[in-house]
């Protein structure tokens, strides 16, 4: 059973999400929160698998709540899915840096929401291909490139793992990485896991941000 916490300041929105999710036999809504601070407390109390987090809430907003939850629980904590009606790049990038594992607009379908919860519960990350392209465009654009930050953890990667990280940063799936590197998908999955572990990253979404922020790929290399 996938345990879900709903964090949104609008009661009708929470009720709608609950109705959608609880039609599924493998999903259970274990709690709700109407502000970020309550979401942090309920996350610690209920230990859900996935948190649906709104961005704009009174007091502590969803981005700060995500930071606190991720910092307090680490890799074993819940996966946070950011949900918002605002299609804004600043929310997207702030959510990724805060440690969110997925980002969806509330204008999506119920099926997309259900799929997202299941994907995050498996320890995977969710970033719509269109949003992935926006991440890459923002970090790779010469006029917007972020300052490169040196990181000793990169030296721990093998040459093959570095190749995998570059392809992850390009938004490649495991199947696409396997095809490009002439490897089996199971082998690629192992490499991805090792890359995330060595770099201390939660998921593939964080790998995209890390790669651009640390110069693994960029305007002159990606």
Automatic annotation (TrEMBL):
InterPro entries: CheY-like_superfamily, NreC/VraR/RcsB-like_REC, Sig_transdc_resp-reg_C-effctor, Sig_transdc_resp-reg_receiver, Tscrpt_reg_LuxR_C, WalR-like
Response regulatory domain ranges (all copies): 3-121
Any one biological process term the GO annotation gives: regulation of DNA-templated transcription
One Pfam family cited in the UniProt record for this chain: Response_reg
Entry-annotated residues carrying 4-aspartylphosphate: 54
Gene3D superfamilies, per the entry: 3.40.50.2300
Keyword Phosphoprotein: yes
UniProt keyword annotations, A-Z: DNA-binding, Phosphoprotein, Transcription, Transcription regulation
GO molecular function: DNA binding
Name used for this protein in its record: DNA-binding NarL/FixJ family response regulator
Phylogenetic classification of the source organism: Bacteria, Bacillati, Actinomycetota, Actinomycetes, Micromonosporales
């Amino acid at each position: 059973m996938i345990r879900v916490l709903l964090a949104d300041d609008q009661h009708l929105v929470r009720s709608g999400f609950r109705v959608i999710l609880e039609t599924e036999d493998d999903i259970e809504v274990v709690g709700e929160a109407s502000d970020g601070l309550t979401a942090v407390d309920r996350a610690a109390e209920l230990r859900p698998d996935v948190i649906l987090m709104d961005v704009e809430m009174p007091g502590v907003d969803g981005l700060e709540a995500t930071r606190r939850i991720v910092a307090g629980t680490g890799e074993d904590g819940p996966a946070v899915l950011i949900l918002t009606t605002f299609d804004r790049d600043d929310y997207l990038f702030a959510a990724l840096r805060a440690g969110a594992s997925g980002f969806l607009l509330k204008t999506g379908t119920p099926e997309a929401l259900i799929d997202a919860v299941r994907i995050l519960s498996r320890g995977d990350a969710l970033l719509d291909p269109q949003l992935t392209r926006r991440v890459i465009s923002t970090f790779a654009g010469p006029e917007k490139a972020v300052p490169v930050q040196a990181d000793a953890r990169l030296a721990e990667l093998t040459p093959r793992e570095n190749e995998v990280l570059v392809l992850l940063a390009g938004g490649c799936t495991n199947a696409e990485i396997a095809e490009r590197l002439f490897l089996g998908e199971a082998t690629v999955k192992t490499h991805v896991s090792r890359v995330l572990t060595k770099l201390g990253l939660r998921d593939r979404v964080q790998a995209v941000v890390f790669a651009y922020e640390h110069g693994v790929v960029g305007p002159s290399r990606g």
